[in-house]
C-alpha cells in the first residue's frame, strides 16, 4: 500500500498508512495455510534440481518455474498451470482446463514459447508431481531444447516462486469471489494475470516495479547493446 501511494506521489509515511488502514478497518489479506496435492509423486527417474531455490535470472527467458493449482466453481474444479519467468516474475505462459493431466502443463509451456518468452537452453523448474516428472513431459521439454529441473518431494520452498504467485492469485482474487461456472472463473483468472499481476501489481522482489516494467527495461538494454 505504501509503495503504491508513493508511485501516485501521495506523501504519507508507513506509520501513517498503517494508522489510516486501522481506522478504516482495512486489513492485508493473508494466505491460507492448507494446500491440497494435485498430483501423485513419481520417484523413478532421478531429475536434478538446477535451481536450488535461486529464483533469480540475469535476463528474461533463461530460468522459468511452473506449477498447477485448482480453483473451485459450482461446476467443479478448474485447474491452472503456469510458467513464470524468474527474472521478471511475469506469468509468461498459462493453460486452464477442467483436468490436470500432462497436456495441461505442456500447453502452458507452449503458450510461453509462442509469446517468445523462452530462450533455447532455458531451465524449466517444477515440483516433483507426476505431470512434471513423466517421460511424456520430459520428452516434450527436450524437443523444445529446455532443461528440466525439479525440487524435492513435499518441499514447497523448492518451488517458492510458483507458490507465491498462487498465493497472490487466491488471496487477491479467487478467495474473494464465487464462480458459478468454469468459464466465468477462466475469464476472471485471465484478467487477473494479464491486466493486474503482469502489468500493474508492484513486486517487492522487483524493487516495487511491475513485471512488465522489468521486461521492458531488459528489452531496452538488449536493443542498446
UniProtKB/TrEMBL annotation:
* Domain Integrase catalytic positions: 42-219
PROSITE patterns registered for this protein in UniProt: INTEGRASE
State the superkingdom: Bacteria
The record, for Pfam families, names: rve (PF00665), rve_2 (PF13333)
Coiled-coil residues: none
Q: Which GO terms describe its biological process?
A: DNA integration
The record lists the lineage as:
Bacteria, Bacillati, Actinomycetota, Actinomycetes, Streptosporangiales
Sorted alphabetically, which InterPro entries does this protein's record hold? Integrase_cat-core (IPR001584), RNaseH-like_sf (IPR012337), RNaseH_sf (IPR036397), Transpos_IS3 (IPR048020), Transposase_IS3/IS150/IS904 (IPR050900)
Q: Which organism is it from?
A: Nocardiopsis mwathae
Query: Which Gene Ontology MF annotations are present?
Result: nucleic acid binding
Signal peptide range equals none
**SUPFAM superfamilies linked:** Ribonuclease H-like
Q: What is this protein called?
A: Transposase InsO family protein
